[in-house]
Design brief:
The protein is an all-alpha fold and about 400 residues long. It contains 17 helices and 3 strands. α9 packs across α13, α10 packs antiparallel against α12 and α10 packs across α14.
């Protein structure tokens, strides 16, 4: 062993170091005397094996024991290490914001629409802001706590969880985390949602909403009136399109001669042709020769609907904030036609889904009133408003 010179600022510190070194020598010699020849050989060989890693024998023993506890046995440690090495993980320190940026870039280059990309970008940006560290270091419990802290419903929480799963699957496919293993996001418990019949509007409530579209200026909406929202609201109510589909809809997609609305492949249900019912044709006909470009000029139609409900004095109900007009249309079409196969084709639903959620035969009279709503006519059958509590 090479000699090493030790320097200290005082004689007292130098004596303390000398006493410590002498004590270590005595203890080592005593331990060495107690070793058998085989134990000494094993110890020397172990130190030589560990030398390239800069680890001592006791340190390596602790790490091995902890690894064996994780995988279940000492024999399984080597197999686990080989599997991990085979996964191709880069062992990088890539942060969650970096992975999110890469994921969003890929979605954009793959042609994902802005309507889908914008909420995905906003949700993952909030996640990345909360957890700016290494994506390989975060655990499912942390993400689940974050989801539970957000003041949202179960469906919204489930959607957020699914977005995290998609992000971590992307990270796994791109070697940011170990391949072939269950991701931390997949370990998050998926909220179970109790199915309820969709909330719908009555014909009288729709009449109130349509009337509000022609009311004088409202600073909350920021427009002189909402008459430009008439095509959107009537297509949702009488053709059953989703708001996301209406926002993508161009006037060129309305085939007047054939009496159908063309819904493109880029939408949730894929390509379909939706018939224009007679009352919807009456609402849209004034735009036939002059309208072009986007049908919906409102960037946030749900917000406009919320304002119209407020102006109409309708109770606030979170379940009416999304596609309640579509749900109303499908429900009334099933009640009126008694033909689920036909309505399934029109709406892009399955027959099984229609039977489960939209089959309300008792609403036939309301369905007739709904299909009779036309512009300039006071022909709404005044039936009692459906109870919000019962929906």
């Amino acid at each position: 062993t090479a000699r090493r010179v030790i320097k200290r600022r005082s004689l007292e510190k130098l004596r303390a170091d000398a006493e410590r070194i002498a004590l270590n020598i005595v203890n080592a010699n005593t331990a060495a005397k107690d070793m058998s020849a085989d134990e000494h050989r094993i110890y020397v060989a172990a130190r030589a094996t560990l030398a390239p890693f800069g680890a001592e024998v006791d340190q390596a023993a602790r790490i091995l024991a902890e690894a064996a506890g994780i995988v279940g046995s000492m024999d399984a440690v080597l197999d686990a290490c080989r599997h991990f090495a085979k996964s191709g993980t880069k062992h990088t320190t890539t942060t969650i914001p970096e992975v999110v940026a890469h994921y969003i870039r890929n979605l954009s280059s793959d042609g994902v629409s802005d309507l889908h990309l914008a909420p995905m970008k906003a949700d993952l940006a909030a996640f990345a802001e909360k957890f700016p560290g290494n994506i390989g270091a975060i655990r499912s419990a942390e993400m689940e706590d974050w989801l539970r802290e957000k003041p949202v419903g179960l469906r919204r929480r489930r959607n957020l969880r699914d977005k995290l799963v998609a992000l971590f699957n992307f990270a796994r496919d791109n070697d940011y985390i170990a391949a072939g293993l269950r991701t931390e996001a997949e370990k998050i418990k998926r909220p179970k949602i109790t199915r309820k019949a969709p909330a719908i509007y009555t014909p009288a409530e729709l009449d109130l909403l349509l009337t509000q579209c022609f009311q004088p200026a409202d600073p909350k909406i920021g427009r002189a009136d909402c008459s430009d929202f008439i095509p959107s609201i009537t297509i949702a109510a009488f053709a059953g399109l989703r708001w996301s589909e209406i926002q993508r809809l161009e006037w060129s997609h309305i085939h007047w001669a054939d009496g159908v609305i063309e819904v493109g492949e880029e939408n949730k249900t894929g390509y379909r042709l939706v018939p224009i019912q007679p009352n919807l044709m009456a609402w849209l006909s004034p735009y036939r020769d002059t309208a072009h470009g986007k049908v919906c000029t409102h960037k946030k139609p749900n917000k406009t609907m919320r304002r119209l409900r407020e102006r109409a004095g309708l109770p606030s109900d979170p379940r009416r904030y999304a596609n309640a007009l579509r749900h109303s249309c499908v429900t009334y079409r099933v009640a009126l036609t008694k033909n689920m196969q036909l309505v399934a084709i029109e709406s892009g639903h399955s027959v099984a889904e229609l039977r489960k959620s939209y089959n309300r035969a008792s609403l036939e009279s309301a369905a007739k009133a709904w299909s009779a709503i036309t512009p300039g006519a006071n022909n709404i059958v005044q039936i009692p408003l459906l109870s919000f509590a019962s929906r």
